Amino acid sequence: MTDAAAAITRRGGVANYRQLASAGVTRAQTLCALRSGSIWRVRNGWFAVPGTPSDVARAVRVGGSLTGASVARLHGLWLLADPLLHVRVAPTASRLASPEDRATRLDPARHGVCVHYSRAPGAGEARDPLLRALAEMFACDRGDAAVIAVDSALNLGELAPHQLGDLVAATVPHRRAALALCDGRSQSGLETLVRLFLVRQRIRVRCQVRVPGVGRVDLLVGDRLVLELDGEEFHTGLAFEEDRRRDFELVQQGYLVVRITYRMIIRDWPRVQGGILELVRRDEHRWRATRVRPTAG
After folding, report:
1. Per-residue CA distances from 274 to 80, 173, 194, 224, 282 (Å)
2. 250-285: pLDDT as tens digits
């Protein structure tokens, strides 16, 4: 690996002439690496190494830094569907270009780009740090996608609990209250979506509750209503059998178990909400004298 390629790799895969010079790489060395094919030109004065995530290079070609959900995706976080390329630029930025062709003027709608105009530090970097990117998600998102991403980051260890204070400080003031809803125990965005719905309905809900003989359940509503959220993948074989064993054990202990699939939440969410509220209205989430109360747990 040439000195230029090594320096670019250390910077996350994309760097400009100034950044390479600060790493001790001359322009002559950069041009030599370019001719050898060990690096390639993203736009005038910016270079990448083979294998650099394409979205990072595309954001630089637009004229800014990759941010928001686009960075969260690179960290493997659970995200709601978001096909846009999120690019952060300075408030005074102009002459933004297509992510595919620097010679073409940017049309955000046509090119699928969400432009974040921000005064936050970090100008000149190809990619925002995760904390900055999450703060940008709160700035541009009016739903729960940002909370889902933070829950996922906490659960996966990509964001440490002590960093939440920094995230609050970096988030626009009118969206900071949403951070109080984050819970790193949620193991999927489905759990977060359902939990947020119940919290806003002022219904008591706990996530990842341990039940003797069963293990952890996704959500426990009130005393006994267990909501298990099944992801996009379909469990077969031993995993399918284990799910049914757990359900059987829960029912024996007096719990009411409801399994909700990914498709039900994504495609029929209002009906799922109505069904959960109906169970709560009928007090199916509470222990009664006619129901068996577990002796432990």
Report:
1. 21, 32, 12, 18, 12
2. 999 999 999 999 999 989 999 999 999 999 999 999
Mean predicted confidence (pLDDT) in 80-100 = 93
Is 286 inside a domain boundary?
no
Q: Is 138 in contact with 164 (CB distance < 8 Å)?
A: no
Query: Does the reported pTM lie above 0.85?
Result: yes
Query: Of 232 and 52, which is predicted with more confidence?
Result: 52
Angle (CA) 85-91-97 rounded to 5° is 45
Domains identified in the chain, total number: 3
Query: Which region, left, alpha or beta, applies to residue 236 given φ > 0 means left and ψ of -120 to 50 means alpha?
Result: beta
Domain co-membership, 206 together with 172: no
* Residue 125 placed within a domain: yes
State the sign of the Cα–Cα–Cα–Cα dihedral 52, 53, 59, 61.
positive
Task: Give the integer Cα–Cα distance in Å for 4 and 109.
Answer: 36
For residue range 137-190, list pLDDT tens digits in order: 999 877 899 999 999 999 999 999 999 999 999 999 999 999 999 999 999 999
Rounded Cα distance between 217 and 151, Å, is 17
Domain containing residue 7: 1-52
**Is there a single domain that holds both residue 165 and residue 66?**
yes
What pLDDT does residue 123 have? 63
Q: In the numeric block, which tokens belong to residue 278?
A: 């109906």
Burial of 203 (0-12, 13-18, 19+ CB in 10 A): middle
